[in-house]
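Anyone up for a design puzzle?
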């Protein structure tokens, strides 16, 4: 939507009306966004799978983004007895504050979890349909499949509902599943190396036999998947945009053991540090007990961002004297 009203109440009304128009003709499961998207992808494959030596298909489904409104039978899989009506927090309106989890009753919060689970199950089913089509067309021998997301969400964790600028594990640690072509013969299983989303593009280029431009900042994941890599990332860095007039309050730095939410130096907002090996839910802030760990992660973050060409005037917002 272009130029939505600035007033939060008016904005909510306008966006709600737009959404209702978008779904007004929805009658069956196949009318939901994810179903339409996957069906379109299946049709594209039917028309193109044998027409080109190589092809690249990018499929982006809005679901399971808010509003969490799966077909009723998907929610009934997890809570068939619900009779409580609508629950606040299950929709997202830019510029309109979301409720805190503490603003909701336990029953309401559990209902949001049910709706989200139903939405994810809906997406899972239709992605499964697309994967079946890929198999039916005989493409698994020579086709790579990559599944990921842009971010996670909160449903009660840290007293939040929906995504926030505070990037704890629930939002920053996203799924990444890579299935290489059968012809690759790559070992299957989980990998615990630290990777980031910019690594996906050079991975695709290498799979396609295309030279990776020297300006690309990510690195191909194929050596990691094949068990050939000896060089590992020490940290991952996650944040809202560092380009523009409004900088984020925190930048999250994650190693295999630690997660630091690094605030700007001198800010009223305080940094937070968590030991993920003992506290994966990030409930015990160790910033005062382990300041040397926090300083080391902050220094590594500054070095990483500097290597990517971040502006020094931006970095200084997070730099301590030793950086």
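Challenge accepted. My sequence:
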């Amino acid at each position: 939507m272009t130029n939505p009203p600035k007033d939060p109440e008016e904005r909510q009304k306008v966006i709600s009306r737009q959404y209702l128009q978008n779904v007004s003709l929805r009658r069956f499961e196949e009318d939901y966004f994810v179903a339409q998207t996957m069906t379109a992808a299946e049709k594209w494959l039917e028309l193109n799978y044998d027409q080109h030596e190589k092809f690249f298909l990018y499929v982006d489904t809005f679901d399971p983004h808010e509003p969490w409104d799966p077909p009723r039978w998907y929610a009934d899989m997890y809570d068939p007895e619900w009779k409580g009506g609508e629950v606040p927090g299950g929709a997202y309106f830019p510029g309109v504050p979301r409720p805190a989890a503490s603003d909701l009753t336990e029953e309401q919060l559990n209902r949001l979890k049910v709706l989200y689970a139903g939405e994810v199950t809906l997406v899972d089913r239709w992605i499964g349909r697309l994967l079946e089509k890929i198999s039916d067309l005989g493409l698994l021998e020579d086709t790579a499949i990559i599944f990921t997301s842009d971010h996670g969400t909160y449903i009660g964790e840290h007293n939040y509902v929906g995504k926030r600028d505070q990037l704890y594990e629930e939002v920053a640690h996203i799924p990444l599943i890579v299935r290489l072509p059968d012809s690759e013969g790559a070992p299957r299983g989980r990998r615990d190396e630290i990777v980031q989303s910019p690594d996906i593009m050079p991975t695709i280029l290498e799979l396609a036999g295309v030279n990776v431009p020297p300006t690309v900042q990510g690195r191909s994941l194929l050596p990691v998947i094949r068990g050939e890599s000896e060089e590992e990332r020490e940290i991952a860095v996650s944040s809202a945009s560092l380009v523009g007039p409004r900088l984020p309050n925190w930048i999250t730095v994650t190693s295999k053991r630690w997660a630091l939410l690094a605030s700007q130096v001198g800010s009223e907002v305080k940094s937070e540090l968590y030991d993920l090996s003992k506290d994966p839910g990030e409930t015990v802030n160790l910033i005062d007990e382990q300041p040397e760990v926090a300083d080391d992660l902050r220094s590594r973050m500054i070095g990483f961002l500097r290597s990517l060409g971040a502006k020094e005037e931006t970095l200084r917002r997070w730099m301590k004297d030793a950086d």
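A detail worth pointing out: The chain has nine helices and six strands.
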